[in-house]
Design a protein that fits this description.
single chain; mainly alpha; two-stranded parallel ribbon
Length: 125
């Protein structure tokens, strides 16, 4: 059986958002976007999760657009044979958070996903 690793690119510094959006609560019990990403990955069968945060922040020297380093850093890992990349298709909807004004839409989207039964009310019980 192949062990699958999910690479979660969450390296932005949140300068447009006004803070670290990766850890800002969006769920009814304080769940974060990273909580939902982790829940989905485990449910989909990934055996290892790799959150790429620190390396990009360190490489960028605090630059607000640190997400620009994502492609080159992933490429470095592939060239060094430390990673292989395969894009996976999904039928799920994606919604992102860029600016602080996006947060209410994301909170409402999470609420709708819970109401539809896609997520339990409490992720980690």
């Amino acid at each position: 059986m192949n062990k699958l690793t999910l690479l979660v690119l969450a390296a932005g510094m949140g300068s447009r958002y006004g803070g670290l959006k990766q850890i800002d609560p969006v769920g009814p019990n304080g769940e974060t976007i990273i909580d939902y990403s982790t829940y989905d990955a485990l449910r989909a069968g990934f055996s290892k999760l790799m959150f790429v945060i620190h390396e990009f922040l360190q490489k960028s020297g605090g630059e607000p657009k640190s997400e620009n380093y994502i492609p080159s850093t992933v490429n470095d890992l592939v060239v060094a044979r430390q990673a292989r990349v395969k894009m996976l298709r999904t039928n799920d909807s994606w919604f992102g958070v860029t600016d602080r004004e996006d947060r209410p839409r994301v909170v409402e989207s999470v609420r709708q996903l819970i109401a539809r039964g896609d997520y339990p009310e409490k992720l980690w019980t």
